[in-house]
Design a protein that fits this description.
The protein is an alpha+beta fold. It folds into two domains: 9-59, no CATH class; 66-214, Alpha-D-Glucose-1,6-Bisphosphate, Chain A, domain 4 (2-Layer Sandwich). 35% of the residues lie in helices and 31% in strands. Strands 1-7-6-5-4-3-2 form a seven-stranded antiparallel beta sheet, covered by helices on one side. A hairpin with a 4-residue loop joins strand 5 (144-151) and strand 6. The longest helix has 32 residues, at 183-214. The radius of gyration is 23 Å and the shape is globular.
């Protein structure tokens, strides 16, 4: 996993220490465990990946040390067109953003959001004023859109919003890839940034639930 994520892997446990600490049980960790699901294979089952490395590459490959993927889903009891219409209004983003960020829209290049729309915001992160400029990179009405940071606190921010029609309502998905700037310093603050992103989206989900329950 460290190799796939390009993490430095410095601390290793020598074999003799494991043997001293765990005795015979250490063999369960140190010895090769060649176990095959013969029954599954005999019945024609095929694994998508032949090795753990391939599976980890599919899950996490391509992300740098400071690049993260964040994914959340939320069900709301409302028609997809209604939900998408709410998200297509830039001013509603202020409603969904936690008040402690002091988030405000400064300008947008088009009256209605569409592909290539530019939106500028200002906010505060832990008290520090920040300007954020977003490009609507993709726009498929009632289905999905992508906002991409051109200027802001992240080295990279790619946020795909997807709206799926499901029985009784709409499934909202947020798929975000973000990269933290700062090299070594960025590595140190990365856990706190990830915590902030989780809290922001937790607030967002609670607010969406509250808004659509009232309708």
């Amino acid at each position: 996993m460290a190799e796939v994520k390009k993490y430095p892997f410095i601390i290793k446990i020598p074999e003799f220490i494991l043997k001293m600490m765990m005795g015979e049980l250490s063999q369960a960790i140190l010895a090769n465990q060649k176990i095959y699901p013969n029954k599954c294979l005999e019945n024609g089952f095929k694994f998508k990946f032949d090795s753990l490395r391939e599976a980890l590459n599919d899950l996490m490959g391509g992300l740098s040390l400071l690049e993260n993927n964040f994914f959340v889903k939320q069900y709301v009891c409302a028609e997809r067109s209604e939900v998408f219409s709410f998200f297509s209004k830039a001013e509603n983003l202020e409603i969904l953003t936690p008040p402690w960020l002091n988030f405000h829209i400064v300008s947008k290049s088009t009256a209605d959001i569409k592909k290539e729309t530019l939106i500028e915001y200002k906010l505060k992160i832990h008290g520090f004023p920040v300007k954020w400029k977003t490009l609507i990179k993709e726009w498929i009405p009632n289905q999905s859109f992508v906002d991409f940071q051109l200027k802001g606190p992240y080295k990279k921010w790619h946020h795909q919003h997807t709206f799926e029609e499901v029985p009784g309502g709409t499934l909202i998905s947020d798929d975000i890839v973000f990269e933290i700037p700062g090299g070594f310093i960025g590595q140190l603050i990365q856990p706190f940034v990830k915590k902030d992103v989780r809290q922001i989206f937790q607030y967002r989900q609670n607010k969406i639930k509250e808004l659509f329950q009232k309708k």
